[in-house]
Amino acid sequence: MNNTNKISVIIPVFNSEKYIKQCIDNLFAQTYKNLEIIIVDDGSTDNTKQIAQEFDVIYKFQQNKGVYSARNLGLDFATGEYIHFLDVDDLINIDFYKNLIDSAIQTDSDIACCSFFFERFRGQSQLFDDKYIVSNINDKIALTNVHIYGACWRYLIKKSLLADNKIRFDNGRASFDRVFSLKTVYFANKIITVPKSIYVYKNRTKSITTTKSFTEIKKRHADRKAANSLIQEFAFQHNFSTKKRYVQSWNYKILGITLFSKYEINCGNIKWKILGMTVFQKKETGI
Fold this sequence. Notes:
Elements: E1 7-13, H1 20-28, E2 35-41, H2 48-52, E3 58-61, H3 67-77, E4 82-85, E5 91-92, H4 96-107, E6 111-118, E7 133-134, H5 137-144, E8 155-158, H6 159-164, H7 177-187, E9 191-201, H8 214-237, E10 246-254, E11 257-265, E12 269-274, E13 277-283
Parallel strand pairs: 1-2, 1-4, 2-3, 6-9
Antiparallel strand pairs: 4-8, 5-9, 6-8, 7-9, 10-11, 11-12, 12-13
């Protein structure tokens, strides 16, 4: 096992006293030991700081500016050859970094992409069944499905890729993970999928993605729309498409009239339509 390449793990936190010890314990238990753990505290008012400083980690504090600003600050202090962004309340298996970095180095890939399990919407999980190496932009988009599921924690990223292409987070709105991740995927020389590195995206109550507040829901919709616009603009500028493509379809007719249609989409979605209207859609767990 190669332990010579340092991985900077950047963890933005805000009032995270319930989860931060578990998160750090998870990192200390990793079989890959050359980790630089950077905790960026985005203005916590609870015991997050006191708990974090009990451990041998890099702790940075900023006034509350949001998760994207915190990640950018983490990048400023990162000294590793590789970068990973970890959410404080999620989980990773203990061979997570070993499998990712070994795969990235062995194949000279700028990005190693993990499998992930989405606790809240299990059908949207992406569990790879094998290692795949892709370098063509359309294959990179289709394999990662990055323009739809753009969470940055899916990727172990070579730091030079971000520096050379001046890729940073926009400090503005939610859903801009997808913009950051799309640019990263686009500029990567190669991407390798790593089935045995598994990220568990937890379903925590009162998180920004689970709140049922009308104001927050409205904001999330507006943010998605803004992110979609930026993604389409970037795709147009670089001459590639992020549109879903159907790879198979089945029509069920009675007296020549199509009543039911089933579509399989290149990104692993299955969609059912009745009389042309989408009534059910799910994400296949395997690729």
